[in-house]
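dumping this here before i forget
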Amino acid sequence: MKTLKTITLIIFVFFCNSLFSQDIKQFEGKWKEHWGIGNVTDIEYNDVFIIFVDNDKIYINCENYDKYIFRKIVYDGEELSFEILNTTANDIIPYLLKLSKDKKWLKGTAVSAQGESVNIKWERMIDK
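structure:
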């Protein structure tokens, strides 16, 4: 009986880990940022971000700007949160994004360097 419980637990952990791995892989791809949706903002460009997963860990890079450091990247099963450190301006921009049901958008908010909450949308450009 003890062996059956152990095997059941191992299968359950493997199953949950497998689901989580598949879950975070849905973020992989190239994303175009739309900053300040519905807000007045001075941002007139669109950064392009690449998200990839390696060993169940999420990594983010900016394709068009190499002065960003991505840190504190966490996916809690519902929301993707992280900080971008802009090493040029020494600003830290926290993000909180959710994947849309059609998996074509990451939508949420960021807090600008001025401390204002700004609506953000990342549009999926290319799947990995």
